[in-house]
Amino acid sequence: MREEFNTELFAKGLKNRQEVLGAEHVQKSLDAADDFTADMQKLVTEWCWGELWGRPGLDRRTRSIINLSMLAALNRPHEIRLHVRGALNNGLTQDDIKEIFLQVAIYCGVPAALDGMKVAAEVIAEEKAKNAKAGAK
């Protein structure tokens, strides 16, 4: 691991980030960090995942609901994909996620909701297939 990733706040953020997004995804992101992108990985891991997601005020499930809503409003499909997986890891159901995008449709617009729901449906299908494959072993 890069030397600049060796802080207490980074370790706290790394734990949260791995638990929500999955250790494999997080490791790929960190392994891909180079001299240009390492500072962004450090910022995201320490402040987003260590500081903000580490705060006691909201549980992870609630934070996932907020994130999916904001990411849909901002039209960030790559981040929606990551955070749908995180939402499932944080206990949201397929129906919970559907309700989020229905709410988004009214307050942010139908196009934003449709785009978000499309990405969410893809992720949910991928996760179901992965779980079915794991269950067949």
What does this structure look like?
It contains 7 helices and no strands. It is mostly helical. 27% of the residues are buried. It starts with 7 loop residues before the first helix and ends with a helix. The protein folds into 2 domains: 57 residues, no CATH class; 79 residues, AhpD-like (Up-down Bundle). The mean pLDDT is 94. Helix 4 packs across helix 6.
Kindly list the characteristics that best describe this protein.
AhpD-like; 0% strand; single chain; globular; 4-carboxymuconolactone decarboxylase; mainly alpha; 137 residues
Strand and helix map with partners:
Layout (H helix, E strand, L loop, with lengths): L7 H14 L1 H9 L6 H15 L7 H14 L3 H13 L4 H15 L1 H27 L1
Instruction: Return the CATH architecture of the largest domain.
Output: Up-down Bundle
List the uncertain runs.
none
Main sheet: strands, sense, barrel = none
CATH topology of the largest domain: AhpD-like
CATH superfamily of the largest domain: AhpD-like
Determine the fraction of residues in helical runs and give it as a percent range: over 70%
Global outline:
globular
